[in-house]
């Protein structure tokens, strides 16, 4: 992965994309009370499911409610395992931090872990290697991190015994919580997996973090999906987020409310990052840019969605290197938690930031760029945007992140996709994976 460049001194000109006006968008403003009722109903349902699944897991050893088929009996512990954890956590720089990265074998996880390790921080990863998408890609990422000296513990964030053991071995100063059930559409197939990972898993992690001494500072991945049916652009952290368009969005919004609670009661320092359509090398196969590339090369039809009245569907595509710089800046500016022994001693830091590119690009333009890079004409199939949780557009206002984190994206979509395509062709060379 290329080295990150320095932040620029001034923010870029915001994108000029504007959503088509519609009577539906105007009607949204009159539905504030309904939106709030729906949101809190979803939160209540999530908590009920959380209690139910926890009780079931206690009754059935090895039971996993997510529907994913991965090992439910992770093997951890022992002197050799503890040695690997401690070795991976060793700090290599004078002012380095020790960071537990959950979801380390994921897309953002591998890049964030690598960047932290390169600059001298101690890093220990945690991942359950589920099969939401090809586990072999996660294993390839794991191999890359192992070469860099980062050990990934195989386990689930709902395993509080494992989490407590890790904190017993290493007094982590920070947690980069990236583990989550991703994807908007998959929530219609397996809703319980979102509650299990994004709500129950987050609570399990916070329960452990609140009780250890010293408490770590926590930076975690929220999502731009929390803006849901919000029609005001660009999306600002001050905008309403009580109209989720998908269960995934609802669980991420629930995470923000849960973070507020643990900050208020236990003094945990928490920073939520609302990622906007992250893309790049080692990405997720369920993302459009990834499977568009695959299907264009195979000659398969590419679905190009459009909104009502042929409205443009656009995304604020953000390159992985820019996202990682935002993640590291969030860690570097995070304040210490103020609790001790599970009790709050004083006010603690609570932040939320948008991390986007500020320039939405129509999905059709994304396909055009891929056509040029792959030198293959895409078989485009125009379709109406389905009501499956996807929204018509995303557009980040990053002024707060720029002001407080120095966050400044520097990679346009053409440049970023060129790097992705180069990696993709190498990794899947001649139909055989050969990542580097």
Automatic annotation (TrEMBL):
It is found in: Golgi apparatus, Golgi stack membrane. Its EC number is 5.1.3.6. Keywords: Carbohydrate metabolism, Golgi apparatus, Isomerase, Membrane, NAD, Transmembrane, Transmembrane helix. Residues 99-336 form the NAD-dependent epimerase/dehydratase domain. One of its GO terms (cellular component) is Golgi cisterna membrane. It is an enzyme of class 5 (isomerase). It catalyses: UDP-alpha-D-glucuronate = UDP-alpha-D-galacturonate. Coiled coil: none annotated. It is a multi-pass membrane protein. One of its GO terms (molecular function) is UDP-glucuronate 4-epimerase activity. Belongs to the NAD(P)-dependent epimerase/dehydratase family. Homodimer. This is UDP-glucuronate 4-epimerase. It comes from Punica granatum.
